[in-house]
Amino acid sequence: MERENFNQRVIMSEAQDRAEVVVVGAGLAGLACALDLVALGRDVRLVEASDGVGGRVRTDAVDGFLLDRGFQVILEAYPELRRRVDLKALDLKAFYPGALVRIGNEVHRMADPGLEMADALRSITAPVGTFADKLRVARLRQEVVGGDAERLLEAPAGTTEEVLREAGFSEGMIDRFFRPFFGGVLLDPTLGVSGRLFRYYFRMFAEGTSSLPATGMEALPRQLAGRLPEGTLQLDHPVRKVTASRVEFEGGGSLEAEAVVVAVEGPEAARLLGDRVADPGSRSVTCLYFDAPESPVNEEILVLNGNGPSDGPVNNLAVLSDVARGYAPSGRALISVTVVGEPNGSELELEQDVRRQLTGWYGDQVSGWKAIRQYRIAHAQPLQTPALMTSPRRPVRLDNGLFVCGDHRDHASLNGALSSGKRAAREVHRALS
Ligand SMILES: Cc1cc2nc3c(=O)[nH]c(=O)nc-3n(C[C@H](O)[C@H](O)[C@H](O)COP(=O)(O)OP(=O)(O)OC[C@H]3O[C@@H](n4cnc5c(N)ncnc54)[C@H](O)[C@@H]3O)c2cc1C
Prior knowledge:
By secondary structure, the protein is an alpha/beta fold. The chain has helices at 3-8, 28-39, 79-84, 117-122, 131-144, 150-154, 160-166, 171-185, 195-207, 219-225, 266-273, 320-323, 347-362, 414-432, and strands at 18-24, 44-47, 59-62, 65-68, 74-75, 92-94, 98-103, 106-111, 210-213, 233-234, 239-243, 246-249, 254-262, 282-292, 302-305, 316-319, 333-340, 370-382, 403-404. The protein has 3 domains: 3-57 and 218-280 and 394-432, 3-Layer(bba) Sandwich (FAD/NAD(P)-binding domain); 59-93 and 282-382, Protoporphyrinogen oxidase, mitochondrial, domain 2 (Polyamine Oxidase, Chain A, domain 2, Alpha-Beta Complex); 113-208.
């Protein structure tokens, strides 16, 4: 990781206490907003509380392993991502389009009919759903693909579970496949998230592969940050307070501006902006990483718990070094385990529960795995119930002259964050013009 290079561009003399636009928060939304404003000829400062760019998309290098802060993937079909990111330069390593689902003590393959037809035909007899369910998957696929993907966010829908029931899926298919798969994507195994998002993600999965950059997820925001002009980015500068024309930093110092964009995560946006932006609430997730002498899966595929919580806390698992070799040192395997939510017990208690469950999956080899690190992410995504998503794009210009962007303005995804940043940049440019 070349963190030093970034720190070099961070230096900004205290004398430069003015900028035309200040963007607060260097996650994907803030980066997109800052880049678009720069492209429109604006003088921009991007100020970030932490020691790096990316926000929720960061990667830690630990003893030769690359640990993304929570299991996440790039969906290559994301429209805004495709427009602005050089995907080739990320050297993406694709997951198999489908999943292995554990039901009882058996493992069944579910393949995406659009991307892996031969496997999909073979998986028709897998007891993950009925034969009719497999046809319903194909029908749903037909319904969502084609035309502008944004239409799926605009069409009214109940919860994801309601959408699945309306489409006629059986209990078995919902519980064994959709609940762990989309419960993992939307961080809500109750499938109470808006069906608009379900349809949108279903299309994204149908239209392209999910992948990891060869050098970790942080390569994505770092690519964007690398395009900022020298001196634009200022790390390690937590903002304490904002007004329409000024930001004040924790520990002193401030920046004057003609426009201020708050590009921080939802709960922090609510703190900085008072009652102008409501706290969107939080979906949390916990990710455990294990170092193993060999992969228990030996395939670039997601493994789902199709048995539900009675099996244990693990929702899904993937051996990231099977997907992208560089995630682990030579001769080792990196296992990523996702537990949806933030468990009450200690890290050790959770690790023991996870080991117990995975011993049921993979046997005694699990005792030879070394726990590397656990990430408990309290705010992984904002809540996205049908009521909260009635307007899929919330305003980015506030009535007090401030601007706001972030996934809580669009929807919780890499694409949603980028697209909210783009909208905010446009509004700022219009206001300053
Ligand atoms: C574990 C996990 C898995 C995910 N998986 C996927 C996935 O597979 N695919 C997908 O599309 N999406 C996924 N997401 C969602 C996606 O990562 C987010 O929606 C997106 O990254 C949000 O970007 P953002 O810019 O809106 O916010 P953030 O990334 O949260 O950026 C906000 C930035 O503001 C900074 N900040 C906060 N307060 C201050 C302050 N006071 N002063 C200065 N700076 C401040 C923060 O440090 C941060 O850098 C996942 C998220 C998590 C956590």
